[in-house]
Amino acid sequence: MIRIESLAIGDELLDGRVADKNTKDLGDALSQLGLELQGARTVPDDRSAIVAAVKEAVGRADVVVTSGGLGPTSDDITGECIAEAAGVAMRFDDAAWARIEAMFRMRGMPGTIPESNKRQATLPATSTTLANELGTAPGFVTPFGAASVWSFPGVPTEYRHLLEDRLLPHIRERLAQQGRSGRLIRRTLRSLGLAESAVGERLGALERENPDVRVQYRAAFPEILVRIVLDGVSDDDDKRADALAERARADIGHSVYGVGDDPLEIRVLKALDARKLTMATAESCTGGLVAKRVTDVPGSSSAMLGGVVSYANSAKVSFLDVPQQTLDAVGAVSEETARAMAEGARK
Q: Is the whole-model pTM more than 0.85?
């Protein structure tokens, strides 16, 4: 298996200003290839910390993917740190600079390009440049013996672009060369209505009887996801994974509503499309979350008509025709009020 690690760089990732979406995207992409990240680390914009982290990662991994620190300002030192870790000098990439100049012209930015942008075209001497069509900072690949460090900008759209167009084709080629002697087989079960601890208890026997199988749990409100993972080399292993998933479904019980990667909102929309039905939402304390989850799905307009966020009781009455006497008798947080809201939205 190809050992791959992620190294996210930036003070903003550690002080809470920015969430690390890039490592998640890398993990998701590798999962589609039957691979897993062997490790992920976040370090500040500190030279000694970055150099040490790079040296440690290349000592364990075949491929290290860094994100961040490729901008034009003084705290963007990833390239310099990778060069120091590799024991090489820096080089100025004329082609990369030409692309930066063209990007400024294309964006209609007036005046002379700031001298600081030349930092983005100054790369480790042994690196190979990766053209970035979405931003001024190029990516680059630096060899470390048998390992390599792939450095991408921290901007998520640019990171994703270089991940999909540069790194993943390289990984697929390496897998093809290896003949894929091994792979990870996964089955995902999705459940509603049971606590994570209750789901874990119901799968205790399955875990004890199959010590070579990993059972992974994740609470992703409102769902509990269970993933069964095993190493596979033949079709028999796929059949075993299917059988384990069926047993897990039976052990958990009726709260399992589906198997696979599609979340609840996608499954609801598919069911509505299949039946030529439409939906609307009536929400209160969820504040529009249900409608957002649904409308985040591309193509949801085929079924989703709209919704009402009726947070105050007066809004429930005026927008959804919830009877005032129902609110007075049982309150807003009740089955009766929820039913009246739904009926009002449907009308």
A: no
